[in-house]
Amino acid sequence: MSTTRTRPRPARRRPSPKTSLWRWVGFIAIPLALAILVAVSTVSETNDTGPEEAIQFELPTTAGETVALDETLAEGDTLLYFSMGVGCDGCFAQIPEIETALAERGLSLLSIMVDPAPMVAAEAARFGIQTPILIDDGAQVSRDYGMVGVYGHADRPSHSFALVRQDGTIGWVRHYAEMFVPADALLAELDAALES
User: What's the start-to-end Cα distance of the chain, in Å?
Assistant: First the structure.
């Protein structure tokens, strides 16, 4: 008969109240810091600002023509729609969703994207969009209007609008985190801006 010797287990030390407190602080501090970072980032990104005065531009379109902002403004107020473009179905679906309602308000719509014209034209055709889309190659106009770098897109707009009054002033700017805004929500905000 063999006898096996078992080693006594070392006594388990209970964490001191001080150590336990620091574990809880560490456990809570990391998610809290992340939540604060996200909140600060969201507040700064949704700051709906842009230039006070329109910055004139002339851009080529998916139809092979060129559109100048001052020519469009000669007809009345204009809504500039800067969007992410190819790869964002909601961005394209937004155009026919609001186009008729804007025309009824006497507003022209200029949709601006940064992707190559053939790619944008193919996507526009897929959504039945007849109106040419302006191509901001290099995103300079988008940058001029403060539309780049919003909601994490460093090289292109996200989903933003700028109302340019016929006199060249900017009447309203709005950046959306969503890639599609229901027409009634967008138009309610726009109508409020038009009335002010």
Answer: 98
